[in-house]
Specification:
This protein has helices at 24-27, 39-43, 46-54, 71-81, 95-107, 115-121, 186-204, 211-233, 238-258, 262-274, 278-283, 286-295, 304-318, 322-326, 332-337, 356-370; strands spanning 13-16, 33-36, 59-62, 88-93, 134-138, 150-155, 160-165, 173-176. By secondary structure, it is α/β, with parallel strands linked by helices. It folds into two domains: 20-176, Rossmann fold; 185-370, Dehydroquinate synthase-like, alpha domain (Up-down Bundle), CATH 1.20.1090.10. The strands form two sheets. The protein has a six-stranded parallel beta sheet, with helices on both faces. It is globular. The protein starts with 12 loop residues before the first strand and ends in a 6-residue tail after the last helix.
Length: 376
């Protein structure tokens, strides 16, 4: 881990607390507003609540976001929305909504007809030159996307996962109102929390770790370990919903500096091929990874507060039946088949051990043995 030189930068302004959503009229600047959300939020009146605050005549609504934003759909949306005079984008929803808003923010100012296909699929990579300001309002507690310079784009046509990254991908403002997470169903509450926990852990067992990212991550783990079990048992506990939201934010601040690591690299084929929810795909191996990081001589975690946070997290995760959750989406043989589809560049190579592919294969084989199902 890098303990000798490091930098830190995060330009996102943060407004947090119960009722923060009602301050949008103070936050959104003048000019046309694109509201990016889901059809569900339109149906339950959330789009109207935004319009009431900032003026209906100023707001264009794009509510066709689906889980795991898809490249071609985003290019189609860009083409349809270019005719509008948009100055600010408001993202109201979970990680997929915020990632969609980030993608539109950098695509709308371009002169390309199919900006994502041209830059990502055809590999005509070029840095994004500008981006519209995004005001991110998360309604889940997990992705931390409201404070990161990344947006995940999924290409179902070519079965690939892409990442937009750079300073123009940072939102301008994050608005955290825990009341917006109160109706989140138990399974979605769990899976998004697993994403936040994964972010915090992966920023700790990371070659890019810094004192700042470490502080964010350790606090995020303590908050999640206290809040998540309570929320799963008592979904109406507003205080713990707020603490889980804070955990997600802090974990997002951590990975905005370090990026993620091996658990995310393992997760992507599961989501691409079998639609395993992102948080679950990241989270199912976390208990095994924690045990490794705490015990293996090559990367054993020696900082006592960090060790304590990891141990506490492992105890919480062990009680969540993650194996059962995972096997609702794919079989053990299907999981085995994805071992060779893991990309070890860009995420896995941030992990603290030396031979990451060899380590991952060994870890997965041990995991398969715990499931007590032989290969066919």
């Amino acid at each position: 881990m890098n303990g000798f030189s490091w930098t830190h930068h995060n330009p996102v302004q943060i407004t947090a607390g119960t009722g923060s959503f009602l301050r949008l009229h103070e936050i959104i600047p003048d000019g046309g507003v694109l509201l990016v959300t889901t059809s569900r939020f339109t149906r339950i009146g959330m789009a109207e609540r935004v319009k009431d605050q900032v003026g209906a005549s100023r707001v264009v609504v794009y509510d066709q976001v689906t889980p795991n934003p898809e490249l071609d759909q985003l290019d189609e949306a860009t083409a349809a929305l270019k005719k509008h005079d948009i100055c600010t984008i408001v993202a109201l929803g979970g990680g997929s909504v915020i990632d969609t808003a980030k993608a539109l923010a950098v695509c709308l100012p371009t002169d390309l007809d199919f900006p994502l296909a041209d830059t990502l699929r055809k590999k005509n990579l070029r840095p994004w030159k500008s981006g519209l300001p995004v005001i991110a309002i998360p309604t889940t507690a997990g992705t931390g996307s409201e404070v990161t310079p990344f947006a995940t784009i999924w290409d179902r046509k070519e079965l690939r996962k892409h990442s937009l990254a750079g300073d123009f991908v940072y939102p301008a403002h994050a608005v955290l109102d825990p009341e917006l997470t109160m109706t989140l169903p138990p399974q979605q509450t769990l899976f998004t929390a697993l994403d936040a926990i994964s972010h915090a852990l992966e920023s700790l067992w990371n070659k890019n770790r810094s004192p700042v990212s470490e502080a964010y991550a350790v606090k995020a783990l303590h908050l999640a370990c206290e809040a998540l079990p309570v929320i799963l048992d008592s979904p109406d506990d507003l205080r713990q919903r707020a603490r889980m939201q804070e955990s997600s934010l802090l974990a997002g601040l951590a990975i905005s500096q370090t990026r993620t690591a091996v658990a995310h690299a393992i997760s992507y084929p599961l989501t691409l091929h079998y639609d395993v929810p992102h948080g679950l795909a990241c989270g199912f191996l976390l208990p095994a990874l924690i045990k490794y990081v705490l015990s293996d001589e090559s990367c054993a975690e020696k900082d006592l507060p960090t060790r304590d946070a990891m141990k506490k997290t492992g105890t919480v995760l062990d009680g969540l039946n993650l194996e059962g959750c995972l096997l609702d989406y794919l079989t053990v043989d299907e999981l085995r088949s994805l071992t060779d589809k893991i990309d070890y560049h860009g995420r896995a190579d941030n992990f603290v051990c030396d031979d990451v592919p060899l380590f991952v294969r060994g870890l997965l084989e041990e995991y398969f043995e715990t499931l007590s199902v032989p290969a066919s």
